[in-house]
């Protein structure tokens, strides 16, 4: 039996269609269709059947989905050598998906360091997706940084930074946003990549019988902070540690009227990269950089004060 069929079967079951599986494995659709035919012949099961415009897995395919994925992941791990790497000789592109605040914190601290010590390494930043497509499982990104741990067992994660929320606004606001009444009275800018106007802050206000006026909804914090400079009474809720350095002139951070749960920054990657030394090196660098930001001990060059000396 051709064990490459397991890789193709894993992609077909994960993607749920020939076209997407072909894209993932860098094959043509006819080639993937022929491979599906070979899988059907080997298993004696149709695997995927058409239902309208969709392809649905058979009961047999549903039963073997997780086992096939585990076998493929284990095989990739076994065949990936674990060796030390020389960052100066590394020639590789890493794709990182995160919001603009995290991207700014990483880029400003890693740019000089990577240019000097790993000139062949390229970082490709992608904004947060507006869909729920799992880019890690599809292999489209190497790392994701979000505020929640991934739900899939084959995805690894680590909390690399814990931040708190604060109110960003002009240094001389007409109302004090540190009180619930002042906070609700001021016009808000809500940051949401999906354009949502209701979030956890509104739940806190609802419990106190208050409502806020959302004047603007924008996809990035950078745009929210820039908007504050043209309207002195606007405020937005932002992560204190990460947003602080990005505040425009004449702006400051105010405490929220009441403490809110901490906001974690969770670094996630797929298990197939666990034994990849280059991936592990970049993973450690990202972790060390963001952990240092949270502890206030990382310089803009990405090194600790001790290293900078």
Describe this structure as you would to a colleague.
The protein has twelve helices and twelve strands. With 309 residues, the chain is an alpha/beta fold. The protein has three domains: 4-78, Arc Repressor Mutant, subunit A, CATH 1.10.10; 87-163 and 264-308, D-Maltodextrin-Binding Protein, domain 2, CATH 3.40.190; 165-261, 3-Layer(aba) Sandwich (D-Maltodextrin-Binding Protein, domain 2). The chain has a five-stranded mixed β-sheet. Strands 10-7-11 form a three-stranded antiparallel β-sheet. Strand 1 (48-51) and strand 2 (54-57) form a beta hairpin. The longest helix has 20 residues, at 59-78. The protein starts with a helix and ends with a helix. InterPro entries: LysR-type_TF, LysR_HTH_N, LysR_subst-bd, WH-like_DNA-bd_sf, WH_DNA-bd_sf. This is LysR family transcriptional regulator.
Number of domains: 3
Helical content (DSSP H or I, runs of 4+): 40-55%
Number of beta strands: 12
Full CATH superfamily name of the largest domain? Periplasmic binding protein-like II
Strand order of the largest sheet: 4-3-5-12-6
**What do we call the CATH topology of the largest domain?**
D-Maltodextrin-Binding Protein, domain 2
Largest sheet: 5 strands, mixed
H/E order of the elements? HHHEEHEHEHEEEHEHEHEHEEHH
Count of helical segments? 12
Q: What is the correct CATH architecture of the largest domain?
A: 3-Layer(aba) Sandwich
Mean pLDDT: 87
User: How would you classify the helix and strand content by structural class?
Assistant: alpha/beta
Q: How does the overall form come out from the CA principal axes? A: globular
Protein name: LysR family transcriptional regulator
Domain HTH lysR-type: 1-58
Family: Belongs to the LysR transcriptional regulatory family.
Pfam family, one: HTH_1
